[in-house]
Amino acid sequence: MTLKIAIVDDLEMTVEVLKRLVLSVSEYKIVWTAKNGVEAVKKCAADVPDLILMDLIMPVMDGVEATRQIMKNSPCAILVVTATVEGNMSKIFEAMGCGALDVVATPVLGSEGNVEGAKELLTKIATIGKLIGKTSKEEQKIKKYKQTSGEAQIPPFIAIGSSTGGPKALADILSQLPKNFNASIAVVQHVDFKFAAGLVEWLDRQTHLKVLLAKEKMSPKSGVVFVAGTNDHLIITPDFTFAYTSEPRNLSYRPSVDIFFKSVALNWPEEAAAVLLTGMGTDGAEGLKNLRKAGWYTISQDKDTSVVYGMPKAAAMLRAAVDILPLEEIAPALVKYYTKKTKH
Questions:
Q1: Which of 55, 190, 233, 300 is catalytic?
Q2: Considering 162, 163, 256, 306, which one is annotated as catalytic?
Q3: For 306-327, what is each residue's pLDDT tens digit?
């Protein structure tokens, strides 16, 4: 299946490097290029691609404003590609708040003709292609690379989102998990940061597993439950560690389940499990759908056992959940999933 890609960058050399990388995958096609945001907005309105590789700093109109206008008028997947990730964090998160899916450092041509950062870019493109229903043969090669690169061991993983009625639901699930359960669990519960430490202490008494506040640069570990601990959004980074971001600022819920689930869908290298529990509103439903598209085993709590059937209902309406289960069946389903996965 062909993935139609557009490139927006004011530097001709960068455009050529990006073209070379994109066209190295037979299923990828470049449909147009643009030198600034104004040109990109016009071209996107005339020919909407599957994915735009969007530079951040450009003359006339930058990548943030271009992302905002494109997502409003002719929406499509946007990957920010910038030369200075660390120096542009505020603009990066602003662009993501406008609808950009992720960010990656601009690949550069090395002294020996190799392209540094090529694998990272192709990994991001393949992941986004999967999320929007466009996959390629290259994806399996990239996935294998991600799983074997680096020193860190990637544990089995479970992502959980919850809101109103969530603490009790979390306690019920965690209390049913066995002491030798080897998955790492990350929880985003809608709760003010002043109460996060108290929630962690209380949950720690309800389960055989260790429960900790998730802190910057911590890595998920087997048998440990990590709970979001600030009013900023918890995310998983490309190097499989936890981080927090203040953007997007305009979300009603902080931390956001959607922001966390979407970061996991983009960056976690293996298919795993995710659960959306009781809560008001719709937070987490879109993120859960992204995870299901990425091949994850997704669960939403059923109406009868939800204190507020808002978030799980939104997930059900989007068909984001593989299974819709009563609360008492969620932990056994997770144990069964990972028992079966381990045997394979």
A1: 190
A2: 163
A3: 988 999 999 999 999 999 999 9
Identify the active-site residue in 50, 102, 283, 302. Answer: 283
Considering the domain architecture, whether residues 186 and 140 belong to the same structural domain is answered as no
**Looking at 116, 148, 180, which one is the last position of a domain?**
148
Share of the chain above pLDDT 90, in %: 59
Length of the chain, please? 344
Indicate whether 174 and 134 sit together in one domain: no
111 is catalytic: no
Q: In the block, which residue shows the tokens 């056992």?
A: 305
Q: Which residues contact 186 (CB under 8 A, 6 or more apart)?
A: 157, 158, 159, 160, 214, 220, 225, 226, 227, 228, 234, 236, 242, 260, 264
Told to judge if 74 belongs to the known catalytic residues of this protein, a careful annotator would answer no
Q: Are residues 130 and 232 in the same domain?
A: no
Tens-place pLDDT, residues 175-190: 999 999 999 999 999 8
Establish whether 283 is a catalytic residue.
yes
